[in-house]
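General statements about sequence and structure are easier to judge against a single worked case. In the encoding step, the backbone of a single protein was reduced to a row of integers, each denoting a local shape. The record that follows shows the chain in one-letter code together with its fold in token form.
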Amino acid sequence: MTGPAAAERQVTAGRSVHGGDASEEAARAVCADAGTGPGPGPDVREHHVPQLLDRLVERSLVVLVDRPEGGRRYRLLESVKDYAREQLREAGEEADTRARHGTYYRELALRAEPLLRGQHQRLWLARLDAAEAELHPAVKDALARGHLVPALRAARALARYWLLRGRPAEAGRLLDACLAAERTHRAHRAHRAHRAPPAGPGRGPHAGERIAAAALATAWRAGLTVWEGTPTSAAGLLRTAAATLDAREVAGHDPLGHAHALWFLAAAQMGAGDVPTGEQLADRALIAAEGLGDAWGTAAALAVRARHALAHGDLAAVRRDAERAAHLFGGLGDRWGLLQTVFPRAALHEIAGEYRQASRLHEEGLAIAQELGLRTEAGKRLCALGRLAFLAGAYEESRQRHAEALRLAGEQSHRAGEADARIGLGMVARRTGDLAGAEEHMQAVLTWFRDAGYAPGTTLALAELGFMAELRGDADRARALQTEGLAAARALGDVRAVALALKGLAGAAAAGGDPERAATVLGTAHTARTSVGAPLPPAERHDVDRTWSARLSALGPAAADAAFARGRAHPPDA
């Protein structure tokens, strides 16, 4: 290597294309051989770069940054960066240097994506955090050069990272740019062929790769709409994306990506769309993952299946799939994966009235979320712990937990998380006598779940609003809300949701002056819960006991018991 000063200038110029600091590995990839253009110049090889960076640090042109999990990183002073970038441009080497920069960070994204799914996920989350300023430009560089497939693949790989970080909008914007470029490419091909744009992605020497990359990116983009909080458009996008995955090129060119896209669409259906579709997608994902011998994909599909089974009350399926998923994720050392199994496993304990066990699981989940810096997941666990505090009668603790979850969801623009937190805040408000506050929260929740087309949330919100109407003495409105909720619960097939609506109808009957009917309907609600092995735990009997106490006063013990017995003999689905 000749000309030490020139070599230092070359490395400085190469560092100027970075948006933030860079690792030694990145500097080697981007700065080495930066002077290979026409004319004389320094011959900077990769093994020269560390020594040159140290010289620049000694001269205070580059700042050395030590990150706990990212190692030594180098940041060019802003005052130096503009001058170095101008030198790079004048030398005619900016385009080549940016190309090396883009290639390195796109490859980093592809290298990181599978490692976010195992025991090294914390380290690789930290590596991507440190490189965040470079990720968008790297994908945009590929688009600018017309390299669609590398751009689509990198954007999809980064979608998982940004989702884990609770920033789905970042992933959405990048995927939108890539998919828009892919549509433009197809239109140009059609124009050159003097025909109308084809319905599909188009054919050509590398059409299969492009079809697969575009289909998988489309699936991830559709799923992200749920996390972004746009449920009205999500249902149609989810259906379209699922159909796109059926193209033979998708599984043929990227079978693992195909299986994981099915999983992601199934997971998205947990917050928007219908449960049966979500279960079908999860089943397809499970079959595909098991066929590939993909333990992570198998566990992920099982965890989603457990959540969908919980939504319609199949508790045996919840236990089977959630426990198997937890076992597989534990074997892989995947902490995020274990976190996905916490809710269904804890829900089984909660349904059985085993609140201590449920709380232990959610506390473990919260610790995992905080360890990995997953703020969206932390909000979910706070909601769950707030729910358990509510059942224990610790209303102020419950309110604080849910309020913190609402704050986190707002910061992450996580609308589904906001809905979960509002459910808890609304229930606390109702229990403590703030009916106006409770109704405000639950009306917002109902609007969200109706827009999302998500029946489990809709049934709960209708039941809560019905209880509020009953407490206000509006029996007709209470009856109308609970009847609507009952129809939704029956369509969903969730017997516990049916029991909740029946419990609300009993309260409405009591408020309307029909104590005998109230006692009868309570008996039917009891039969519904016990039919699925989930009798109502003592901590959840507040509304039942309130209604029953009023019926005893109105009817007397003998008549109330007789009406309750008649209700127990009545089929819940009649």
User: Anything to note?
Assistant: The first strand starts at residue 22 and ends at 23. Residues 34-40 have pLDDT under 50 and may be disordered. The CA atoms of residues 102 and 138 lie 4 Å apart.
